[in-house]
Amino acid sequence: MTHRIAVIAGDGIGTEVMPEGLRALEAAAKRFDIDLEYRHFEFGNCDYYLEHGQMLPDDWFDQLKDFDALFYGAVGWPEKVPDHISLWGSLLQFRRRFDQYINLRPCRLMPGIKSPLADRQSGDIDFYVVRENTEGEYSSIGGKMFEGTEREVVIQETVMTRTGIDRVLKYAFDLAQTRPRKKLTSATKSNGISITMPYWDERVEEMAKKYPEVSVDKFHIDILTANFVMHPDWFDVVVGSNLFGDILSDLGPACTGTIGVAPSANINPEGTFPSLFEPVHGSAPDIAGKGIANPIGQIWSAAMMLEHLGHQEAGTAIVDAIESVLAEGDAQTLTPDLRGQGSTESLGKAIAERIAG
Ligand code: GGG
């Protein structure tokens, strides 16, 4: 069976880490005899916007909907296009139109990486952030009034639906149930945000009744972020709204030493539409073009994609290869965010060689 992968590198370091993601995929495909077919798309980046006045062509949905997965790099180049236009014009369209309502973001302290938190060893931090991915604070409902005057007003609504909350909670509880600790933490701010967040809490309580083996903690987002830094070992599966999940899934990897290693899967669990796999990091214009971006977030996302496509063994082999190269800690191979003097390519090649076995 051939898996058809749509490849969209996007902007900035997305174009630099993508070749290393593909190199890792190729190595895994060869070793495990997996048939992958790629098609590269030149849209979904800010240069495309400058040429066409939009991030995607009108028929993007039809062009992409029959692929088995989308492999994505990063989006955004604020000097060319305001960030909210590039994001809403590309990535958020994919998430919404392909109903990728789960954003799954593993957070693990890898061997050989020094956590900025004192006394943390590999194995101490190992949890998932499950982020609601199609509604919540990321809503396009709102508007402006009296623009350009002193009475200027801007309003943007948060949208939470019972369906939207229940389906992300179900995914998170199911995941927690498969984990040894069976622990779920829910992030809200129900004291200050007095309608949507208490509603989320109610849905958590309702869902928890179906999962008696899962222990449930609820935290307000402010103290939860503090606890990510002070007690990252407390967490197992953390579920939150679109915005809170986004923040937690940057903070979590930062606690593990570098956001450069963090992967993500934007999943349509029903398989009606393709799911999308991308590093958590953005396009990082400050280091783009230097060849020093860490490719591990992209490579680990490739592992998640293979697992999603049914190739668990190949996904595990990629993660093992990442861990082995990190544990070795060769400064000539590792990128500067890992305290090395290597490049995107040197790190990507080392991992691909290890995957090949
Ligand atoms: N590779 C992911 C990426 O480019 N992220 C840019 C970003 O700002 N994303 C916001 C989000 O995930 O909601």
UniProtKB/TrEMBL annotation:
Q: Which reaction does it catalyse?
A: (R)-malate + NAD(+) = pyruvate + CO2 + NADH
- Molecular function as annotated in GO: D-malate dehydrogenase (decarboxylating) (NAD+) activity; magnesium ion binding; NAD binding
User: Which cofactors, by name?
Assistant: Mg(2+); Mn(2+)
Occurrences of domain Isopropylmalate dehydrogenase-like (ranges): 4-351
Is Oxidoreductase set as a keyword in this record? yes
What SUPFAM superfamilies does the annotation carry?
A: Isocitrate/Isopropylmalate dehydrogenase-like
EC number assigned by the record:
1.1.1.83
Q: Which PROSITE patterns match?
A: IDH_IMDH (PS00470)
Keyword Manganese in annotation? yes
* Classification via Pfam families: Iso_dh
Signal peptide positions are none
Q: Which InterPro entries match?
A: ICDH/IPMDH, IsoCit/isopropylmalate_DH_CS, IsoPropMal-DH-like_dom, TTC_DH
Q: Which domain of life is it from?
A: Bacteria
Q: Which UniProt keywords apply?
A: Manganese, Metal-binding, NAD, Oxidoreductase
Family to which the UniProt record says this protein belongs:
Belongs to the isocitrate and isopropylmalate dehydrogenases family.
Name recorded for this polypeptide: D-malate dehydrogenase (decarboxylating)
Which organism is this protein's natural source? Litchfieldella anticariensis (strain DSM 16096 / CECT 5854 / CIP 108499 / LMG 22089 / FP35)
